[in-house]
Amino acid sequence: MKCVDTCFVIDLLRGVEEAVAESERLDAEGGAAITVVSVFELWLGLGALRGRRRARAAEQLRAVLDRLYVLKMDAPSAEKAAQIFVEARERGRQIEQNDALIAGICISAGCEALVTRNVGHFEGVRNLKISPY
User: Are 109 and 3 in contact (CB under 8 A)?
Assistant: First the structure.
């Protein structure tokens, strides 16, 4: 199973052609997963909206999330995320903590690939296949 990144869901909600087409491919393949970290980031992003706009966006987000399997963070995935973060720093690269958590969860869960347009955010993460859209 592939895992989708936060940016994928944002693009899907915005109707970005490439994300919509990839979503259709993922549905045809049996669906996809998302990490609990991405779910947090998505709900956090809605915090900037107000009133009806927020309510409508929340309804749309729930509809998308209902179609995805949510990968939880556990002790092995947290350990893997920390390893990714430290290894990047040792190589003179920086990875955002949330991106390290997403990568750690994906790898620990045995995901086939991470679907993202933010390829550079995950560059150099060993054992993480990226599926750009």
Answer: yes
- How many Å apart are CA 100 and CA 83, to the nearest integer? 9
Cα 37 to Cα 44: distance, rounded to the nearest angstrom: 10
Render each residue's pLDDT in the chain as its tens digit; 133 residues: 999 999 999 999 999 999 999 999 999 999 999 999 999 999 999 998 999 999 999 999 999 999 999 999 999 999 999 999 999 999 999 999 999 999 999 999 999 999 999 999 999 999 999 999 9
Kind of pairing, strands 114-116 and 3-4? parallel
Both tokens assigned to 122: 């995950």
Distance CA 82, CA 9 (A): 25
**Structural domains present in the chain:** 3-132 (3.40.50.1010)
Give yes or no for a contact between 35 and 65, defined as CB atoms under 8 angstroms apart: no
* Exposed e or buried b per residue across 116-127, where buried means at least 16 C-beta atoms within 10 angstroms of its C-beta: bbbeebbeebee
